[in-house]
Specification:
alpha/beta, TIM Barrel, eight-stranded parallel barrel, 8 strands, 46% helix
């Protein structure tokens, strides 16, 4: 079964915006539900979230089976942590807090077999449980998975041109929150100084023709608009618990408002578009509305 990385590459080649979301819950059904929303990739997070290797393995299986690309953020830039994830066959490995050229080179080396890297040989799902010949899989492993580094520190911004020259890096993603913290402005993601840095990162990536992305919240649509205008290739939107929270709050608030205002209309005669009949309080619908807004802005 394909890891669906080819779908990501194909859309980027057509300059289509790639959209994904993050999973933190251990149950792979969460990934299955989010894939049904239409997301191109699922970011399986093991840096900040309590996911173990078995959880990650099940999420990867689910995402691949649903036709999306599984990206896994590892806890740290450590070959020992990366190796078992590679054997699971993800479409991308995401490395946090890459700040220097040497760190970028280590990330690449962790994913490549000798002589290009230091990865030990022992694929599992990655070579379809040995149904792919060793020679063929070694060739595949030269270009898969995608190696993605997160730019989330001022040192990384200062070293960005050299980092992008490291052979083997396929994309970068910006972490605005931690980047703001590295310049003493934690949480101030709309601060003019941070905006200048984000613009600089995007410009540098465009110059190097490097696909780039950002992790964003749909509660601040201006951030999303900015990244679309900067030419981002892909965007990470929200996460499983925030989507659940937004949908739950909307359902509760909408119904509570109706109960408190006491509608005098005859049931079933109201304008459905104005909320007399609530049928859109589902995560899938909310996410689809957000994605449609983004697609309209790209036209």
């Amino acid at each position: 079964m394909s890891n669906n990385l080819s779908k990501i590459k194909n859309k980027i080649s057509k300059k289509e915006l790639i959209l994904g979301t993050l999973v933190s819950f251990s149950d792979p059904i969460v990934s299955e539900v989010l894939c049904s929303c239409g997301f191109d990739f699922i970011w399986i997070d093991s840096e900040h979230q309590p996911l173990d290797k078995k959880d990650i393995d099940l999420h990867i299986m689910t995402v691949k089976g649903a036709g999306a690309a599984p990206f896994v953020r590892v806890p740290w830039n450590d070959p020992v942590l990366v190796k078992p994830i590679l054997e699971m066959g993800p479409a991308g490995i995401i490395f946090p807090f890459i700040k220097t050229v040497d760190e970028a080179k280590l990330a690449v080396a962790s994913c490549k077999y000798p002589p290009e890297g230091i990865r030990g040989y022992g694929p599992r799902r990655a070579n379809r449980f040995s149904s792919i010949s060793k020679d063929k899989y070694i060739e595949i492993a030269k270009v898969e998975p995608w190696i993605i580094v997160i730019i989330e520190h001022i040192d990384a911004v200062n070293n960005l041109k050299e980092i992008l020259k490291v052979d083997g890096i396929n994309s970068i993603v910006v972490g605005p929150e931690d980047l703001s913290g590295s310049i003493g402005l934690l949480g101030q993601t709309r601060h003019p100084e941070l905006i200048k840095l984000l613009d600089k990162i995007a410009e540098t990536c465009r110059d190097f023709k490097m696909p780039f992305a950002a992790g964003l919240s749909t509660t601040v649509m201006k951030d999303i608009e900015d990244w679309v205008q900067r030419g981002a290739s892909w965007l990470l939107l929200d996460n499983d618990f925030s989507s659940l929270l937004f949908a739950g709050k909307k359902a509760y608030t909408d119904v509570k408002t109706i109960s408190e205002t006491g509608s005098k209309k005859t049931p079933g005669t109201g304008d459905k578009s104005k909320g007399d009949i609530l049928t859109n309080n589902h995560i899938e619908v909310i996410v689809e509305e957000i994605m449609n807004k983004l697609r309209k802005k790209l036209k």
